[in-house]
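Recap from last week: sequence in, structure out.
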Amino acid sequence: MITLYQFSTSPFTEKVRRALNYRSIPFDVHEVVRAKVPEGEYTNVSPTGKFPAIVHDQEAVWDSTDIIHFLEENFEGRSLIPSDPREAALAHAIEEWADESLYFYEMTMRLSWEHNVDAAMDEFAASMPGVPKETLKPLIIENVTKLAQAQGLGRKPREQIVSDVERHLTALDDMLEGRDWLVGDSISYADLAVIAQLNALLYAEEARKLFETTSNIAAWIARVDAAAPKT
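Predicted structure tokens:
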């Protein structure tokens, strides 16, 4: 049995849960207490402090991409990595776009813009028991703002960030024109990576407004949810 160590608020956790559900791999969930991570509580599971992480037969794997490849190598069943080399390369590139680009947009808009943070507060409060929301909210904003500024996105004007997200959503909508999935003829881990970041991004009211102008994304979300549920 796999044990999934997770932050329920993380889009990377959503990606892994969807992969496990699609592949019908049983798993238990251990919700990581954020305050315990700096204290070294989980170093035997994730020496880097990165989550999600899984433990299977006493072997620990952290990083969502590494987990998906571990599942491919160690479990039989439906694959999330295309067999065609070109399609596999494209799935890899799209997953990287989601994990390394869309991620910072969702973090910036969802968790460093004060008017959007409230939508996520209950979920974050559940992962930090004992910390009052009035203390937690400014802490989240401060920490994510520092992260976004260090990465670079946080130094852009807000209107430029919204314009960037509009281009990202237009690109995603265009990729789905006339297609059921982002790569090939079946769902892949590219779909899982993108939908997870998109769901986090849609906490931001600016992103929701842009989403309403797209034509293909909503139907794709429904297909992914049916094939690979997030819970």
